[in-house]
Amino acid sequence: MGKIIAIANQKGGVGKTTTSVNLAASLGALEKKVLLIDADPQANATSGLGIDVEGIEVGTYQLLEHTLSVEECIMPTESPNVDIIPAHIDLVAIEIELVDKDQREYMMKKAIGHLKSTYDYILIDCAPSLGLLTLNALTASDSVVIPIQCEYFALEGLGKLLNTIKSVQKIHNQDLDIEGMLLTMYDARLRLSNQVVEEVQKHFSDMVFETIIQRNVRLGEAPSYGESIINYDVTSKGAVNYLNLAKEIIKKNE
After folding, report:
1. Fewest CB within 10 A of the end CB: N or C in the chain?
2. What is the arrangement of strands in the sheet containing 82-85, beginning at the earlier edge strand?
3. Cβ contact 193:201 at 8 Å
4. At what angle do helices 158-171 and 132-140 cross, to 10 degrees?
5. Average pLDDT over every residue of 99-124
6. Can you give the three-state secondary structure of the chain, one letter per residue?
7. Looking at the predicted structure, is the pLDDT value of residue 102 above 90?
8. How high does pLDDT run on average in the chain?
9. How, if at all, do strands 34-39 and 82-85 pair?
10. For residue 183, what are the CA distances in angstroms to 23, 126, 146, 189, 242?
11. Does residue 139 contact residue 133 with C-beta atoms inside 8 Å?
């Protein structure tokens, strides 16, 4: 049986999409069958895997509206073993459209639940908010990866996210686990980076992944070519970090 993992943090710019795209590609490179669901109206995970967002006609919007089956929303990607359900700017409207629906928090869960027998991992790239899209993702997921950037405001808003996860566990999905907290954008030369790492590890100890994602120029360049870091430069520090993260997740779930 596969596992559904949301990648969530309501704070923007913490490396959610970078993690979603590169973790998916790394798991695929390690011969796991992966589906990436882009649940962010900015559609950066979609373009980050080389798909032209302007040409998208079916994707997460139709999935949540239940106008199409999940199988009709899936597209292949250039990354080995990785499929995607793409996003489009239309997705902005979904929160308003779902407001009146019964069981609006369960739309994604109902649509994708049966895919766990098809994929080893289903990753959901969440929007930088705690709105209905993120709530749908958390309700549908088995666990959540929380990226935290090694910068001054890193822990700001983390309490809010953890409270949201607690209330989702209480009301919608008692099986939701925290897969782990992932430290991103780490620069060993900066004292601040090291302080954040110490602080997070002290507070959350074994909830924190051993793998730390270092600041890496190649990692920043890859999305502009519509490629994951695995396709763009598999020898780079960023690729090594994400492959290590994928191995850590596989080991944890075996």
Report:
1. C
2. 75-76, 82-85, 34-39, 121-126, 3-7, 143-149, 177-186, 208-214
3. no
4. 60
5. 93
6. CCEEEEECCCCCCCCHHHHHHHHHHHHHHCCCCEEEEEECCCCHHHHHCCCCHHHCCCCHHHHHHCCCCHHHHCEECCCCCEEEECCCHHHHHHHHHHCCCCCHHHHHHHHHHHHHHCCCEEEEEECCCCCHHHHHHHHHCCEEEEEEECCCCCCCCHHHHHHHHHHHHHHCCCCCEEEEEEEEEECCCCHHHHHHHHHHHHHHHHHEEEEEEECCHHHHHHHHHCCCHHHHCCCCHHHHHHHHHHHHHHHHHC
7. no
8. 93
9. parallel
10. 14, 17, 9, 15, 12
11. no
Structure tokens at 65: 């509206």
Structure tokens at 216: 């890496």
Within 13 Å, how many C-alpha atoms sit on residue 25's CB side? Answer: 31
Of the CA atoms within 13 Å of residue 77, those in its CB half-sphere come to: 33
**Alpha-carbon dihedral angle through residues 232, 234, 235, 240, given to the nearest 10 degrees:** 120
For residue 139, CA distances in Å to 7, 110, 167, 214 come to 13, 10, 10, 30
Asked if 179 and 9 count as a contact pair (C-beta separation under 8 A), the reply is: no
Pair type for strands 34-39 and 75-76: unpaired
pLDDT value, residue 252: 93
At 4 the pLDDT is 97
Distance CA 251, CA 94 (A): 36
Name 72's Cβ contacts closer than 8 Å, sequence gap at least 6.
58, 62
Q: For residue 25, what pLDDT band results from cuts at 50, 70 and 90?
A: very high
pLDDT of 159 higher than 90 = no
The token duo for 91 is 């997705």
